[in-house]
Each structure stands twice: as structure tokens, then as C-alpha cells.
Write a structure and sequence with these properties.
This protein has 358 residues and is an alpha/beta fold. It folds into two domains: 177 residues, no CATH class; 148 residues, Ribonuclease H-like superfamily/Ribonuclease H (Nucleotidyltransferase, domain 5, 2-Layer Sandwich). It has a seven-stranded mixed sheet with strand order 1-6-5-2-3-4-7, sandwiched between helices. The longest helix is centred in the middle third of the chain and has 31 residues. 33% of the residues are buried. About 2% of the residues have low confidence. The structure holds zinc ion.
Length: 358
Amino acid sequence: MDDFVYWKLTRDGGFSTKSAYSLLVRQSVVSIVSTPAPDQWWKSFWGLPLLPRFKLFCWKLLHDALPLLATLFSKGLPVDPVCTFCCLDLETTSHLFRDCPFIRILWNSTLLSLNGTLPESTSFTEWVVSVVSYFRRSKDLVSLTSFVSLLWAIWIVRNGCVFRQAIWSPSLFHHLSQDWTDRVVQAQEFHRHLTSLARSSPNPCQELVPLCLQGKLSDPLDHCLVFYGAWLSHDNCTGTGWIVRGVTSDTILGGGARVCRVSNALQAELQACLWGLRLALRRGFLSLLIYKDCAPLVSLFRLSGTFDISCLWLLREIQELLPQFSVCHLCKVPRNWVAPAHWLAVGARDRRFLCWSF
Ligand SMILES: [Zn+2]
């Protein structure tokens, strides 16, 4: 006998809107997530080293704020409220993310030690809260990330099925989840490496004479920008990197890296400078000391010498940004002072990150 799908709420196994609606009313499935997580738990949750998009996703998940089919149906929208994966039950939060027979197989096949339980009797919120708390207490951040990544992967695969009629398979969930876990772990390692590079770079030296690009030389400076353009002459492939930190501390406050193509080394430096300044403006770092190891670039800002027209265009873009700063000084420094930006730029040039902002 062939396998077939049947709707368990009608005698003939066929789906009917009436039967689904009566179940929704009976079970109040929209609030099936049940008891909210305690405020204290949320407080520690926001402090976890997870991607911001994962945190927001979990918040929506535990507040029934995702546009699930059963939720939309209960609000009168003309959608089929049945689970996309099994077609056996309504697509509610607890069903889609835990109790669906296909999703249970996924959870049971992960290498995650979910405390040995996947209980149906526990509410969905209690389950998520207990798993996250367990990994947090045991300081197992990789498992915590894998857990949230799998929830996220379920949502991504489900959206592909609902909106693009995409084909899904169990390996697709695991592949997506592993991909996100790897990215987060890489980001954490990257941050650690960058912080150690920043620590090894010297702090500002008052003896260096800066060039005043904006404000007065006597104005106080709060933040420091370092940038680097790594250009390859044979194919013009260029990596750019930039970092902003406190002027008297090692703490990195933001930065980025990006691949581009330019026609010379100076242009690469200017491009990195432009993107670094834009980041500083976006974050409100308006009192800025720029450290640069490249003498030709400092000469360019002094407008001494002859330069390629493409460099002058970029310089003009930079100069148009400068009035938005309250103060901006440029200082020529040794190469090792810009080490974190150099590391980022080389990483981008070697395609380890194509476009990164943090
Ligand atoms: Zn299902």
C-alpha cells in the first residue's frame, strides 16, 4: 500500500477549513507558546554572544510574533493553516519548530546533547528556555549556537517551501544550520584575533605632529581610525580594512573589510580611508585621529605632489565628509600601528571575507 497524507480532523482525511478553524478555537493554538519566559532570563539572553539577528528571531519565536500559517488563519487571512512539512497538523510555533514528526527526526539526529529530552508535555517556551539555560550554564557556546542555528534553519527552509515551493530534505536543514554555526564561531575567533592585534599596537604618542584636516590642533580627540588598502598589481584585486577604537584604549569599537578593484596602491588606501570615515560618521565618532603608515597618502592630504585623477576623485569624496566631523587629525605612524587594519585588508584581498562590517 502506498504512503499517503491525511488530515486527521476529518473522517475522510481531506482538509477542510471548518475543521481547522474549530481546532484553532478549541485549542487557542495561537497562544500555544504559553507561559512567557521570565524577565531575568531575557536579561541574560540579550547578553549572550549570539548574532543580533538570532536574538531577534528567538524573541519573535517566544512571543508568537512569527507569521505562521495557523496564526494568520486565526486572524482571518485566507491561508491553508496546515504544516508545510507533514501536512498532518496546524502550523503553530511548537509544531513547526519541535513537534512536527519530520522536525523531531531532525532534533533527534543532531549531535547536540539536548539534555536527553524532547518533551511534548513541556511548553515550547519552557523547552527553549531550559535548553538555552543549560548550554549557557555549561559555557557550551558552540552547542548554544548550533541549537539556535537549527531553529533558524527550520524557519529558512520553511519559508523556501511556502514562498518558493522549494524542495527540502533533512540534509538541507543540517547544512544550513552548520553553515550558520561556522560563521558565528569564525566571527568569535576573528574578534579575539583582532583584539589581540589591537593590544599589540601602541597607543597615541603625543610627540607625533598631526595634520589638521578639520577643527583645530588643540581640540581634544576621542577616537582613533586606522585603515589599510592591500592592492595586487597583477590583477588590481584590492582588500580594504578599517578599525575604530578609543584614542587611549585598546577596545575596538567598530570596523569593516571589503574587496574591491582599484588601479593603484594609493587609490586602495584612499578607498579604505573613505569607508573607514563613513563608518566613523555612522557610529557618531566625530572627534577622530587618523593613523596612517603611508607617506604618499599623507602628502596627498597636504596636496603636495602629482596624483592620478582617480585618486583626486576619491580625495574629494573624503574632503566632502570631513566637515561632518567636529575634529579630524591625520598622523603618520609606523606600520605596526595599523596592524589590525592590515590584517583585515589582507583577509579581504585573499577572499576570506568579502564584505564585513562590525
Ligand atoms: Zn508538521
